[in-house]
Amino acid sequence: MKWYWNTRKGTVWIVPRQDLGSIRYHVVYDDEALGSYHSPQQAADDVAGGHTFGPSNGVDLGSLGISNNIADWQHTN
C-alpha cells in the first residue's frame, strides 16, 4: 500500500520499498526520496513536522498543512 497527501505544491507520497531484507517506507516528493522510515506513521510524523530531507525545489513540507496521522492520508495499492 502507498499513501499520499495532495498539497497546493504537489503530492507527497509514502511508499514501501524492500531495503536489505526488510520493508522501509520512503517519503517521496517531486520525484525525490526525502527519507526512509520503519513505519508509515513515523514517515507521516516527520513529513508533517518538516523533519525530512529538504527537496531541491526548496518547498518546506512542514508548512503545507500535512496531517501527522497516517489514517488521514489517502492510500492506493
UniProtKB/TrEMBL annotation:
From which domain of life does this come?
A: Bacteria
Q: What is this protein called?
A: DUF2188 domain-containing protein
Q: What organism is recorded for this protein?
A: Rhodoblastus acidophilus
